[in-house]
Amino acid sequence: MVGAARKRQRALTSALLVWYDEHQRELPWRRLRNPYATWVSEIMLQQTQVATVVPYFERWMQRFPTIHALAKANTHEVLSAWQGLGYYSRARNLQRSAQLICSEHSGRLPANAELLQKLPGIGRYTAGAIASIAFNLPEPAVDGNVLRVLTRLDGLRGDPRVEPLSSQIWQIASDLMDCVSPGSFNQALMELGALVCVPEKPRCGQCPVLKHCVAKQLDLAEQLPELPKRPKPVARRVVVVLAERQGKWLVVQQPDSARHWAGLFTFPYAELLSGEKPQDAIARLLAQIDAQATLDSTDPLTRFTYPITRFRFQALVYLARGVRAKQATQFRAKFAAPEALANLALPAPHRRLVGVLHSPRGA
Ligand code: SF4
Questions:
Q1: DSSP codes of every residue in 148-179
Q2: Probe ligand 1: pick from 13, 147, 150, 153, max atoms within 8 Å of CB?
Q3: Is 42 assigned a catalytic role?
Q4: Shortest CA distance to 304 belongs to which of 351, 363, 251, 253?
Q5: Are residues 240 and 352 in the same domain?
Q6: Nearby residues of 176 by Cβ (< 8 Å), 6 or more positions away
Q7: Structural domain contains residue 294
Q8: Residue 328 pLDDT exceeds 60
Q9: Tens-digit pLDDT profile for residues 43-99
Q10: In this structure, are 252 and 354 located in the same domain?
Q11: Whose CA is nearest to atom 4 of ligand 1?
Q12: For residue 203, which atom of ligand 1 is closest to its CA?
């Protein structure tokens, strides 16, 4: 790196670290300062807002205070602690990784980004974040916030998520590691992206690195990064059957191979095939789980929508009484009283349906 570039880098890193010292948010994982807490927080923060994560993180650390406790926990308990956060494979991967850490790394997270990436659910970003924040190693960590900040600081045109720009940004982040504290510096970049260099209307007037920012100088701050427009969500329809027998409700545990909600309990549901009528999908669903039931009405009791990844599902919810069901095939099926449902790991859209069981037609 030539003299002028190095000088700019030094000025930029030092201005950012001073700002971070003063402006960083008080967050529970920052107070704890241990590698396990850093790892759990980083996994929870994937696709999820800080404000949502904070109570989950605090409950999680009380329930599974160490890597050993997480490794030994019942998987259903782990999924229960995660319920409502979505993307449940994150919870399953946390536990699988905890078991591997106990068996292969004497119960300690490896202080090495390459080894960290060998653990389930830990990609390049998360490995860099844990290595730098927990072990203060000079590893870059480019998440969405950092990507935006670096793209703007250097005024980079083009889609930063594709090559060659993607590698260029990781290289810029890596060059910036040449500073006193990689952990604080990476967090400072993330915090700047979260609080000041926000996606819409960046608050350049409050920015500690304004004078080093190429995008601002070129009046491009709001146009960068040049990310492609998100495609519209794909619409899908599902039928859900609230199936009752003697005041208890049929729930099934989704198999480990399920595309969504593997290992969680749900009310029986099935996606409508192309051109299929809801009644035909219900018949198919009941046959699949070895249950027999008569619908209370051919009209849905309620309907609601929910997103999963790139899909937007519309659920049509039907009520069925006097249900007979065997302990079904690939699913683990059971009847549970409404109070018992509270203790099962149900994904958020199905948990909301527990309230429907108390409504006039459901009661
Ligand atoms: Fe982002 Fe504006 Fe700061 Fe540039 S000056 S890094 S665009 S907040």
A1: HHHHHHTT--S-TTSTTHHHHHHHHHHHTT-S
A2: 153
A3: yes
A4: 351
A5: yes
A6: 9, 12, 13, 140, 185, 189
A7: yes
A8: no
A9: 999 989 999 999 999 999 999 999 999 999 999 999 999 998 988 999 999 999 999
A10: yes
A11: 213
A12: 8
Q: Which atom of ligand 1 is nearest to the CA of 208?
A: 3
Q: Name the residue with the closest Cα to ligand 1, atom 7.
A: 221
DSSP one-letter string for 12-36: HHHHHHHHHHHH----HHHHH--HH
Pocket of ligand 1 (CB under 6 A): 149, 152-153, 196-197, 202-204, 207, 209-210, 213, 215-216, 221
The mean per-residue pLDDT over the stretch 281-288 comes to 89
pLDDT of 321 higher than 60: yes
pTM for the full predicted model: 0.87
Helix axes 50-63, 35-45, angle to 10 degrees: 140
Question: How many whole angstroms from 89 Cα to the centroid of ligand 1?
Answer: 35
Catalytic residue among 22, 26, 42, 271: 42
Alpha-carbon span 81 to 210, nearest angstrom: 42
Q: What band does 201 get if pLDDT is binned at 50, 70 and 90?
A: very high
Residue 181 forms part of a structural domain: yes
Ligand 1 centroid to 151 CA: how many Å? 10
144 shares a domain with 43: no
Residue 11 C-alpha to ligand 1 middle, in angstroms?
15
What is the number of domains present in the chain? 3
Instruction: Look up the CATH number of the domain holding residue 290.
Output: 3.90.79.10
The yes-or-no verdict on residue 326 having pLDDT over 70 is: no
